[in-house]
């Protein structure tokens, strides 16, 4: 049982996709999360991503129980990385973060807080029908 999982740059991701036992994930600095690594982990409800992390396409696709995501500085989120994560309520991004196309599309996102110099790709928040609160800092780019 994983319950809480700490990811480092040397993590082997083979057994995580669709794992119903993972409840929280902390991704340490310098990690590179591959495509679909945690997709369909339906019990996952909290994620913390530290500085200088790359999250590839669809890494958390269809994780339908995630409520809170805290992302530190200099993090890149790939295409559709959190797409269809319908329970997300809060997203906090640090400085210099990049989201690629459709990163949070069709999610349940309600609150977005972004640090300085963030870059949001095309349709990053497409069909986020519950998004009620957005706070963006200076030099934010919305594509």
Automatic annotation (TrEMBL):
Protein name per the record: Leucine-rich repeat domain-containing protein
Organism: Candidatus Synchoanobacter obligatus
Matches recorded under InterPro entries: LRR_5 (IPR026906), LRR_dom_sf (IPR032675)
Classification via Pfam families: LRR_5
Organism lineage string: Bacteria, Pseudomonadati, Pseudomonadota, Gammaproteobacteria, Candidatus Comchoanobacterales
Origin superkingdom: Bacteria
């Amino acid at each position: 049982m994983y319950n809480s999982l700490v990811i480092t740059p040397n993590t082997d991701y083979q057994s995580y996709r669709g794992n119903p036992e993972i409840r929280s994930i902390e991704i340490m600095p310098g990690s590179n999360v591959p495509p679909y690594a945690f997709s369909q982990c339906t019990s996952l409800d909290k994620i913390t991503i530290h500085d200088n992390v790359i999250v590839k396409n669809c890494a958390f696709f269809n994780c339908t129980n995630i409520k809170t995501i805290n992302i530190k500085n200099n993090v890149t989120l790939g295409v559709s990385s959190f797409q269809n994560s319908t329970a997300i309520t809060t997203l906090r991004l640090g400085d210099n973060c990049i989201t690629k196309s459709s990163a949070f599309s069709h999610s349940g996102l309600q609150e977005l807080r972004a640090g300085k110099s963030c870059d949001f790709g095309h349709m990053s928040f497409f069909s986020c029908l519950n998004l009620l609160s957005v706070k963006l800092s200076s030099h934010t780019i919305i594509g």
